Every structure is written in C-alpha cells, then in structure tokens.
What we know:
Elements: E1 2-6, H1 14-27, E2 32-38, E3 57-61, E4 64-67, H2 71-82, E5 89-96, H3 108-118, E6 123-128, H4 142-158, E7 169-174, E8 184-187, E9 199-204, E10 210-215, H5 228-233, E11 236-242
Helix pairs in contact: 1-4, 2-3
Binding site for a divalent metal cation: 8-9, 43, 95
Domain Survival protein SurE-like phosphatase/nucleotidase: 3-192
GO cellular component, one term: cytoplasm
Amino acid sequence: xxxxxxxxxxxxxxxxxxLERIAAEVAGPDGHITTVAPAFxxxxxxxxxxxxxxxxxxxxxxxxxxxxxxxxxxxxxxxxQVLDGQPDLILSGVNRGNNSAENALYSGTLGAAIEGxxxxxxxxxxxxxxxxxxxxxxxxxxxxAAHCKxxxxxxxxxxxxxxxxxxxxxxxxxxxxxxxxxxxTRIVPQGLRPGVGFHTEQTQSPNGRNFLWIRGGDQQxxxxxxxxxxxxxxxxxxxxxxxxxxxxxxxxxxxGPIAT
Length: 260
C-alpha cells in the first residue's frame, strides 16, 4: 500500500511521528510511506490553500518533505510534485487535541483530508483528544498508537470503491483516556458543543502595542448524545464519515416557495 502522510502541527510534531509508525504497520513490509508536512505549525487553517502566492518546498530526508504552507498545500505537493501516481490512502494527524464537533470546521488536519478526497484519494484525519485522564501520561498519544492501525484497516475495507459525487473522507477522534481504557469505536455524526466557541483575548506588548490571542472554549463539554465529542468523553473512538458538500439538504424543499 502507498500512503501519503501529512498533519497541521508541523514536521516536528510528536503526533506525526506516531502516525508514521502507524502508517508503516498499515502499509506492510512492501508498502511505501511518504511524508509531506508543514514546515511550521498550521493549526486552525482549515482547508486553506496558498492560491495567491508560491511557497517553499524542500526534501529533508528519504521520503520526507516540508512545505511552507497549509496541510492542503502539502497534499497538493505530495500528489502532484512528489509521488508518481496517486497513493492508496492519505492519513492526516495525529493531531494534538480533538477535532470533534465545531473544531472540525477550523481544523487543518481535516483540511488535508478534504483536499485528499477532492483529489479522489481515500483520506482519514486522526486526532487525539486530551483531557485529565491522558494529558499527564508519559505518552499522551498512546491510545492512538494502540488503536489506530486496526481502525484504519477497517475503514479502508468498509469504504466503497466507487462513489458518485463528492468523495468520502473520515474524521477520527481518539478519546482522552489511556489506551487500556478505550471502550471501543462508535460511528457517529458531528456534534456541536453548546455554548462553546472561539473568542479573542487582548494582550499588550512592552512597547504598548495591542495584540489579540484567539482562545478556544471548554473541550470537556459533551455534544448531544450519540455524537462525536459525547462518545469521546465517554471513552469511545468516534468515526464520522464526511463529504465536502456544504448543502443544507433539509432546507431545499422548505425554501422552495422563495424560488421564482
């Protein structure tokens, strides 16, 4: 199996090293792994591409490349500059922190998977939820390392080979617990944390200039029962199948009377 790997935390992120080990197990002894990751952290850039300006691209080791751009840029570079032919699979992550619920809309990890799907390649985004039970572990990614290989193989086997329209990609979130405490896997829709969102916090530099930090909300707030963050906080891995179709299908008939 040929696998392309990227992330949004950057080429030096510990979660990327975890994913490279997972991918090597999935690919097998005859497989081929290529990593194309951002040179610097790109968290929160979603599906951004650097359409209006070029970006630096360089090889830093065998089958390892960096891009001074977004995760989606990395996917484009990997598919059209590095690889000879399409890979069988694109893996993005393992992200430092969850991409459940509304986080999915901001996530560069998901942005890479979206671009992979738009390019016709099965793509899976993987994120490690952090919380009181795993944040202080010697290896906070141990649950991802223990469970993702088999899960990826099951997702690949279950995905239809032929898909009309927008292609599937997957948002996988590993719960904020130790590996031994993971209860299982749930296939669930994306949720929404009630009352949780991003906000700004103002700070001032020593020379009096004003700056704003973007701050996130409480990640330990569950979503509705049976949705992603709710099952994550209950100790389950969430798998959410997604497509890059933003249409509110439930409103098409409802809005019919306004058509002229």
